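Thread: Modeling a multi-component assembly for a lab meeting

Hi all, long-time lurker, first post. My supervisor asked me to bring a structural picture of a complex we are working on to next week's group meeting, and I have zero experience with this. I have the sequence lines for every component (798 residues in total). Could someone generate the structure of the whole assembly? Inputs are pasted exactly as I received them:
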Amino acid sequence: VSLIFFASDFGPGSEYVGTCHAVIAGIAPATRVIDLTHSLAPFDVAGAAAVLADVLPFAPPAIAVLVVDPGVGSLRRAIALRCNRGDVLVGPDNGLLTTVARMLGGVVEARELNETRYHGVALSSTFHARDIFCPVAAHLSAGVPFERIGSVLDPAGLVAPFRWRLEVAAGCVRCEVSNIDRFGNVRLSAKAEVLTAAGLDECRTFRLALSDGTASVRRVRTYEDLADGEVGLVEDSFGWLCLVENRASASERLRLTRGAHVELAG
Amino acid sequence: VSLIFFASDFGPGSEYVGTCHAVIAGIAPATRVIDLTHSLAPFDVAGAAAVLADVLPFAPPAIAVLVVDPGVGSLRRAIALRCNRGDVLVGPDNGLLTTVARMLGGVVEARELNETRYHGVALSSTFHARDIFCPVAAHLSAGVPFERIGSVLDPAGLVAPFRWRLEVAAGCVRCEVSNIDRFGNVRLSAKAEVLTAAGLDECRTFRLALSDGTASVRRVRTYEDLADGEVGLVEDSFGWLCLVENRASASERLRLTRGAHVELAG
Amino acid sequence: VSLIFFASDFGPGSEYVGTCHAVIAGIAPATRVIDLTHSLAPFDVAGAAAVLADVLPFAPPAIAVLVVDPGVGSLRRAIALRCNRGDVLVGPDNGLLTTVARMLGGVVEARELNETRYHGVALSSTFHARDIFCPVAAHLSAGVPFERIGSVLDPAGLVAPFRWRLEVAAGCVRCEVSNIDRFGNVRLSAKAEVLTAAGLDECRTFRLALSDGTASVRRVRTYEDLADGEVGLVEDSFGWLCLVENRASASERLRLTRGAHVELAG
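Re: Modeling a multi-component assembly
Sure thing. I ran the full set together rather than chain by chain. Output:
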């Protein structure tokens, strides 16, 4: 079975998502499409990159159309990246795909999607997921070789992967909020192992410095270890340090949004 | 592979959507169901018609269950329309299906869904998507001929397609807001070509008259052509004139909602 | 075709949902996954149980992963229940699965998911849907026998099914709000038949006592029977009494939320 993963900032249940599914079904009727997420924050390329770099390693190697594309219709290129693990990522050249590719063994070969025979019937300046990315992905899934979809690009010329703020000093970790989920869990741009580098392995209670105040958070293993209204620091399911509450929203209590700077001290 | 497209105002991720998928899987296990959208505004039949009339032409001909149905359980009929392009549209007779059918070559044959052997196990007065539309669509996808699902209807007796406000005069286009998407893009009920009819082909900056004020908008090709905070007029991916901002919401800035009257002048 | 139903409180379009789909696709590529809903209210196990106990009887017997799991990572067990109807329910032991199983003929056999060879590649303390429930479901769908996934549990030792408030007296029904849908329809924890038991069969207008006031509601068959702004009492599509308006939100007008106590009197 041919398989395409699909992620975007189009919004869950959006007709833009449905239109893309319909276009793929028209080109490659036997291909299965699995939605990874369509709740990515509108226009937020770096935020999407953080989320998808975590998710794709849990998926089997396949074709993936990844679209957060505020520059659609401008000079930014439409590209496909063949990754070392076997995946082919399709989308805009704005740092989203290169960030994800880094987690899939890196880029083996890059192509610009300039072979218009594999594009859709319409060409708009605002909806390249429908007109370019999904048609190309569908043709690939139906057997068109990667080499045919456009001309070779030098991977070194692609928009570079995103990097998140992370400074580790003795007794202190400075990072940023890389994601906030539906439950209000606040993901930080620091893996649990940086606490070792900071000499904070044994620390059970951290001082949290935010732009508008401080708080005290207790290191715990799971939500239920927390008292009502208490904020805790857990290692989340993707290995990141994460500020959480038990059955409540830590992001609301701490008034944190994506990109906010956070300092953890012992 | 048999294919059913499904669109509704049930809300993304709603259990009503899932129940319909489950009912189809019970009747026609080999049929694939593709969600076109479930984010249609609750109760808004005309708004749904505008969206789906744009989307279905991008889909391959198939069976489509289209449900925005505030009159469910009343005397409004349950119908299926065979369209010239080969599609079969299933849903309520409230103008939604006839509006979409107009974009698929028009209605070849209409049937009332009164053959109850193809309905579901329950019959409620509030959920005909589960009890009538999806079961009939599933039976059709499993091979039941169109002629069996109910008695013939005269297409002339169906609720007429929706029409949107559009007046074109020299130097002026009067229309309405037909849709607002997740990004705050404001779709107007005027295709880009009406600007030719209005003699506004060469116009680069338009005066926009709204119910509560005026604004100036610049004609651009893509979002990135706009300065921060500037509202532009683009031809969107379905050919409509659309008021947009770059990485921000034009609908919020202009305080526009669906159905609002808009006048564009040179 | 092997089939897994999937429901959660992860939010529609969430990357958590997509990650679970991806994990299943990696283990059981031929298995089809149908989302029942991902809009269940965060952390609300009882609310989810009410919704899913209604939905599953409309689905064909299959494997179902049902996840609202605020106790993830704590001592609560991961379980699978084989039901009399043939379904296998997979998820946390917190009352959600036992409530649903009651509607599927009851539990035939229960297993604890402690055979780690059928778990995923990661084991987090916060995302057992990805690490345990979906991998086990995928292996089951790919042919692993139910007896292999872990040790037998005494069904009597499982967390008991939820029960909703329902008191029926002559001329009076006391119940609670068990669900509120996208349209603002307010589902009560009383089936239409309890009106017979209360001697209220012939009653056309009910007095509604809420925690902060009273209202008068008219018994009707369908939304369109109501005047603008009037609240009605219908039998909804799952047999429950439901407070509704025509093309408007009864929950907003009555300011009702899930769990609120409601008294209906003749």
